[in-house]
Amino acid sequence: MIYEMRVYRCVPGRLPALLKRFETATLKLWEKHGIRQAGFFTTLIGESNQELTYFLAWESLAERETKWGKFMTDPDWMKARAESEADGQIVGNIVSQILTPTAFSAVK
């Protein structure tokens, strides 16, 4: 199992719109494509409280490539994204890292 950590830094004041998009559209589309989330977090203390950090669980890089590619090109996702950004851009920057658990990690 590998994990992907994604950090979305929102345009100031747009974090609520991002959270709404995940709750009402993104998660349903992930389910459709077999994408498994492993946790979502907002920043309580840190550099910015306009961030959403989440983890995805993948069996392999090949699984990620296939499922993420299908999700990103799904017409329903493109529509949901466009609708959620009708009032302006939501995300200013995205950082993604692929992580592998250590032998002593509680998460495998």
From TrEMBL:
Gene3D superfamilies assigned to the protein according to its UniProt record, in alphabetical order: 3.30.70.100
Alphabetized Pfam families for the sequence: NIPSNAP
Origin superkingdom: Bacteria
Domain NIPSNAP: 3-105
Name of the featured protein: NIPSNAP protein
UniProt source species: Bradyrhizobium sacchari
